[in-house]
Specification:
Helix content is 69%, strand content 6%. It is mainly alpha-helical and 141 residues long. It has a two-stranded antiparallel ribbon. Strand 1 and strand 2 form a beta hairpin.
């Protein structure tokens, strides 16, 4: 499997935002410079990540982009109740310990799980809905 530049840049941006701390905004310019990502390309990627609720943007002089911990934490509540290890706790520990390799591994794991769930579950649901309402693929997209 080939990882595109867009995916590579998205993961690198997410990891840096996660490492910045809880809700700490990072300017897009600083993020682009530190990760050597073209600014316009990064802004497009951040827009897509915002739509997916993985990052948040804040306006103003103290604004910037921040990792949306709430999107992970909502899913982690069920696991925390069961007192089991979870992806969110692993991510939090890696961030607190500044363990970059572990942080990368957990972020990539989250990305892979998201892709698998999207392709396995949501694609199946979309096909079923298109068949049910007699829509072809061109009309559905």
């Amino acid at each position: 499997m080939r990882v595109t530049a867009k995916v590579d840049y998205a993961v690198r941006a997410l990891v840096e935002l996660a490492a910045a701390g809880s809700g700490t905004p990072v300017k897009a310019e600083r993020l682009a410079a530190s990760q050597t990502i073209p600014l316009r390309f990064l802004l497009n990627i951040l827009g897509e990540l915002k739509t997916a609720k993985l990052v948040e943007s804040r306006r103003g002089s103290e604004g910037g982009w921040a990792f949306a911990w709430r999107s992970l934490m909502a899913g982690e509540l069920l696991v925390a109740i069961a007192n089991k290890k979870s992806i969110g706790t692993e991510l939090s520990f890696a961030r607190q310990l500044s363990d970059a390799p572990r942080l990368y591994a957990v972020m990539i794991t989250i990305l892979v799980i998201g892709i698998l769930v999207s392709s396995a579950f949501f694609a199946t649901v979309e096909r079923a809905i298109c068949r049910r309402w007699d829509l072809n693929d061109a009309e559905a997209r």
